[in-house]
Amino acid sequence: MVCSLMKQPAVPIRILDINPFNMTLNRRKFIKNTGLFGLGIGPLASLNLYGGPNRTAHKSGDNHSEAALDIPLHWIDRQQGAPSLGTTFGVPWPKGKVREQQQFELRDNQGHTAPIQTWPLAFWPDGSVKWSACAVANPSTLIQEELFLTASERIQPGIQVQEHEESITVDNGLLKVTFGKTGTKLLQEIRQDGRLVASAAFLQILLQDAPDAEPGENLNRTTWQSHIEKTVVENSGSQRVLIRVAGTHQHGEQKKIPFIVRFYLYDKSPTIKVIHTFLYDGDEQRDFIKGIGLSVVMPLHDTPTYNRYIRFVGENGEVFSEAVKGLTGLRRDPGSAVRKQQLEGKEVKWENITETAKKGLPFIPEFGDYTLLQAHPSASSIEKRTKSGHAWIHSHDGGRAMGTAYLGTPSAGVALGIRNFWQSYPGQLDIRGAASDAATLTAWLWAPKAEAMDLRFYHDGMGQDSYEKQWEGLEITYEDYEAGYGSPIGVARTSELYLSIFDQSPPSEKLRQLAQAYQQPPLLSASPSYLFEQQVFGANWGLPDRSSALKAALEDKLDALVTFYKGEVDRRGWYGFWNYGDVMHSYDADRHVWKYDVGGFAWDNSELGTDLWLWYYYLRSGNRDCFRFAEAMCRHTGEVDVHHLGRFAPLGSRHNVMHWGCSAKQLRISTALNRRFYYYLTADERTGDLLREQVEAAYRLQDIVALRKRVDEPVVTEKGKALVGFGTDWGAIAAAWFTEWERTLDPKILARLKASMQSIADQPQGFFTGLSLLDIATGKFDRQKDKTVRVSHLNAVFGLVEICQEILLVIPDKRFETAWLQYCRLYNASDEERLHALGTKEGKFNLRSSHARLTAYAAFKLGDQLLAERTWHELLGTKAGSFVQATTIPLVGLANNQQEWKNISTNEAAQWSLSTFQCLHYVGKFLK
Description:
Blueprint: H1 27-34, E1 71-77, E2 87-92, E3 103-108, E4 113-115, E5 117-123, E6 129-136, E7 147-152, E8 160-163, E9 167-171, E10 175-180, E11 187-192, E12 195-198, E13 200-208, E14 221-236, E15 240-251, E16 254-266, E17 271-279, E18 288-299, E19 309-313, E20 319-323, H2 336-343, H3 355-360, E21 369-376, E22 379-385, E23 393-398, E24 404-409, E25 412-418, E26 427-432, E27 438-446, H4 467-477, E28 492-502, H5 508-519, E29 523-526, H6 528-533, H7 549-571, E30 587-588, E31 593-594, H8 610-621, H9 624-639, E32 652-653, E33 665-666, H10 667-670, H11 673-682, H12 685-693, E34 721-725, H13 728-744, H14 747-761, E35 771-775, E36 780-781, H15 800-810, H16 814-826, H17 831-838, H18 852-862, H19 865-876, E37 887-889, E38 898-900, H20 906-923
Antiparallel strand pairs: 1-7, 1-29, 2-6, 3-4, 3-7, 5-6, 8-9, 9-10, 10-11, 11-12, 13-14, 13-18, 14-15, 15-16, 16-17, 17-28, 18-27, 19-20, 19-24, 21-22, 21-26, 22-23, 24-25, 25-28, 26-27, 30-31, 32-33, 34-35, 35-36, 37-38
């Protein structure tokens, strides 16, 4: 029931004397300062919830909605002076505005233009394009920082692609690249201007049957090379071609560890972007990965070794430069011009070398092997040797290397780099055989010189052989343990690499710029104001609002939380191949460390909407650092925290010391909702795979029960049905179905989604019924026969709020909306109100400040002033959501201070932020 509106003057909620970092309010002071009393606050005379600085009414003809498709864009990253890498980004459109055939171009304020290749990512129900992917090969032709996406009538010719029986050839106007369809070579050759620059590219994994040997122990090590199973042209147009190669690694007749590698070639670009994914399907007790690498073979037989040049880009862009046969530092001077030419990577001609130096050339060592090792996030080293069978010589020590290696001659060169190189340690870059006729460059995603990867569970179960003991373990360390559930089978890792071709040796500055571009590749995005106007991702976030002291304090706190967590990544060393992108769950104030070793309090694994928090913050702010933070988290949580193969696929794992260690395998972690942002903002195809992977995930719930310990009774279901909760489970299912439907407009997917919505609305207590059996094929829930209320404080804090809001914008359904608004209105209501509406006041109704956004949404939709006022009491008038300002404290035994935010909780940080975004947006005008 909507509260009646009493006629009296509007009284905005005003909270005084508030610390932006400590939102705990004294109730008496709150009442005194506002002149309001309890939840019976004098209501406002009129409730225009749709106005204010956080929302602009969307009317025909307003702003961009009827403009000539002139969309403002801003750079998230752009590296001036670097060779063109090309970029792909996503743009949303108003309903009915853009058809699939529409052509576009980029334009700057000076009238310069660059062609764009587009394709649809999502559709509106009327078939118009909702999101477009936009690929541009060389945006550096546009000299202005402020760019616009505008309509074009020009149709650009496509990049040349030729399919053959055993290969695919792509000619982008600068490079001609041949991809294999069978065998071991993913790339068979790369030619530039007809000249062979690379003769092969292949994958290899080094496996050993035990961890690195203890003294007196032996181990066996084998090399597994890529075995191609399928190569396809996944996308092709005027600006970009994408080749997808899938297969497994093979040793003799054995095959294991599948891979998916995507190669991106942009028009006339010398750089190939590589997205590498591998899935672990080994036995963690005897399949220890010693190395994961992509190797490129470069022919060198026509070039003397003193004209073969080695480069590594290290910390802060420092370039390590040497020649295979060095001509500097010799006892007999080859000539100053010769030395200068070699240092610059230019051609040294035989006739220009002094006669005394020529005599000694055969006796100058040829260093053909080089290695850059990043064994630690803050320490790297370079060493070299003449060839296998001889000692390594230490060459250089450094810090955080930029992860780019180069091998070249005066007329040809290959650069190979790994993005997030030091962050994803241990990494390694090898050059082998540079003194021979063909050298090999290898980018090792896991360094062979580091200890072997150990994926075994971190403890032996500690006698937890019964549910009773497992429950006690959960009670003490928050770890949900069950034997066999901590297996890494099916987890994946996606890495980004770049391969660039040169027709001459690049100056150090150019190579430095290239390495920086590898680490921060160019990316465009629509402006926050345009994204907000298009009501993307639920239209629930608004733009920052500092129109009052309290609002400014809230905005400051939102900023401070993101800044703090971003800083903690470096302060606490949240780096590593399997860890980078995640944050910790809870803090141990006694030890002044995060609970990295305490059961379920360690790695966060998306707990309570951490991914959503960062993405919505980015949407509001356009903040570049937050985008990259969220990007790394999306890569991690979508791959490492989810099983993509095996008995648990495609469910995710709840938070744990090991990312895959928890026995709670749940949709709330693998949810498509967490991936939608990155997919639509970047058009990343691997993320598209992850979204599609979740479409039929509900079938896994038939044998992997979502409810964890102490289920009241065994769950027995009919074939094709699963017990599904209306909160974390259905929210994830709905996100997957909604995303697949808008990507394809498949009517069967829409029918399933609608059936699930309508059958929730038909339950005796709507969302408060809590759960039921889902017929997965039809999407219909069985109707419960009684009015029992089953509610959990976790139901709405893993994206249910956000996906319901987004679905209702596109698929109006009055009965479902009524059921959802009932849940939003009553969750934080008084016991008396719930008793009146539901017939009971029983339930677990904590996380009050997190659920303030549900109240705000109900106030917004129902036009209810009392709910609007109640919202701010829920968010600010309780201890939940309050934090103590960050302070600097000394850590014993360390020279440097660590920053500490007392009583910090990632759950609270994420949920308070999400709630604040929506409260400011929906009812922000009532907070002055």
